[in-house]
Design a protein that fits this description.
Largest sheet: 8 strands, mixed
Distance between the termini: 33 Å
CATH superfamily of the largest domain: CoaB-like
CATH architecture of the largest domain: 3-Layer(aba) Sandwich
Strand content: 15-25%
Structural class: alpha/beta
Number of helices: 15
Radius of gyration: 25 Å
Number of strands: 21
């Protein structure tokens, strides 16, 4: 999966140290370049044994900082690059690098750059399991976290050395997301509890058949991703695949409308308990803790009806005959049943008739008791299952058209409008 984030003009510095996983740094650089970011690379001498500077120059179209290329007559040096970068990512970061970084030792170019850098720093460890489990390394990683350095946890798998365990470099997409979060987080959304529902519910007919709809869950996934990148604490309740989401997005997979109603209500109760946060990052000011209003984005396409008598096992067509009639009953109206007090609620309304659809969406504001409705026109090649969408964001005071865009980018535009619904925005 290639994300469609908009990072045009953002400045990422990538430091690569001497791990066999150095080749994966090429994919990380490619992801940022594809997102429109400017990427500069600094290599340690050990890293050059695995991947050449020429490879990164071809990927980034920028000169690479190495011991041989460092120049004090140009900006290709560790001081100027440290001033240039908006975020500095060390990936892969060896155990040696982690331990030195925690102690302020700077005997390689990536470490010298880190010592000269004053912005957000992200490190993605990659090392033998026992090297990472060594108490010195564990202590260094704890020290880095204490100093507000983001550590992207390594993966557990078969390592290049033949050992199996934690130590493999995290997936490039996950490293991309955690680094992008440092660029995209916003104070409004930071640490705010948000519940998102997505996908089309499935109502069992028997053990192998169900009633459902064409919703892919992509809009909800994009929303959950955008919220997490903005710094929020989203909980995604969905029937759809969650592959490709940031690993730290908390997900609950459900099937039926009844399950979705129960889990969504539980998530809202947790969200309302909230998290106390300080609105000021100035450590010299008195800490004034506030409770941020949680949000609910009801993007799921909930089935309106379900079979009255779902069957165990598989119904045989030989027993059913030429005609088969299903008795259906209404499913719970999730939005109507939820306690929406103390939470900002955004509903989604999919319609197939462009003439009556907007009016139906406007009526849902009062009928469902929500703060906003996102109207989208569905039909052949529209919305369901596609990579792009457009929305009409409707509130009691205004209507804003969110133009056709990839769903990930559309999610950010939607969040910008949703911010206006909170009195504290």
């Amino acid at each position: 999966m290639t994300p469609t984030l908009e990072l045009r003009g953002r400045r990422i510095l990538l430091g690569v140290t001497g791990s066999i996983a150095a080749y994966k740094a090429c994919e990380i650089a490619r992801l940022f370049v594809k997102a429109g970011a400017e990427v500069r690379v600094v290599l340690s001498p050990s890293a050059e044994r695995f991947v050449s500077a020429l490879t990164f120059e071809a990927l980034t179209r920028q000169p690479v900082l190495t011991v041989q290329s460092e120049s004090w007559s140009t900006e290709l040096n560790h001081i100027d690059l440290a001033k240039w970068a908006e975020v500095y990512l060390l990936a892969p970061a060896t155990a040696n690098t982690l331990n030195k970084l925690a102690k302020g030792i700077a005997d390689t170019l990536p470490l010298q750059t880190a010592l000269a850098y004053a912005g957000p720093l992200v490190v993605a460890p990659a090392a033998n399991t026992q090297m990472l489990a060594n108490h010195y390394t564990e202590g260094s990683i704890k020290m880095l976290r204490v100093n507000d350095i983001t550590v992207v946890d390594p993966a557990k798998k078969l390592l290049a050395c033949g050992d199996e365990g934690s130590g493999a470099l995290a997936e490039p997409l996950e490293i991309f997301y955690q680094t992008a979060r440092e660029l995209l987080r916003e104070p409004f959304w930071e640490d705010r509890k948000v519940v998102v529902t997505g996908g089309g519910t499935r109502e069992a007919i028997d053990s192998v058949r169900y009633l459902s709809n064409r919703s892919s869950g992509k809009t909800a996934n994009a929303l959950a991703t955008a919220l997490w990148l903005r710094g929020a604490d989203p909980c995604l309740v969905t029937t759809a695949s969650v592959e490709g989401l940031p690993e730290q997005v908390y997900t609950i997979e459900v099937e039926s409308a009844r399950e979705m109603a129960e889990y969504t209500a539980d998530c809202i109760r947790v969200a309302k308990k909230g998290k106390m946060t300080s609105p000021s990052m100035n450590r010299n000011e008195p800490i004034s803790l506030v409770k941020k209003t949680p949000y609910l984005f009801m993007a799921a396409a909930v089935s309106d009806y379900a079979p009255r008598y779902p069957q165990e096992g598989k119904l045989k067509k030989a027993d059913l005959g030429e005609h088969w009639s299903l008795e259906l009953v209404r499913t719970p109206d999730i939005l109507a049943s939820l306690d929406k007090s103390g939470i900002v609620t955004v509903a989604f309304k999919a319609e197939t008739d462009p003439e009556t659809g907007p009016d139906n969406a406007r009526r849902a504001l009062e009928e469902k008791g929500v703060d906003a409705v996102c109207y989208n026109l569905v039909g052949p090649d529209k919305a369901f299952g596609t990579e792009e969408n457009e929305l009409l964001f409707i509130t009691s005071e205004e209507e804003v058209r969110l133009e056709l865009a990839p769903k990930e980018r559309l999610a950010f535009a939607l969040l910008d409008e949703a911010k206006k619904l909170d009195d504290d925005a």
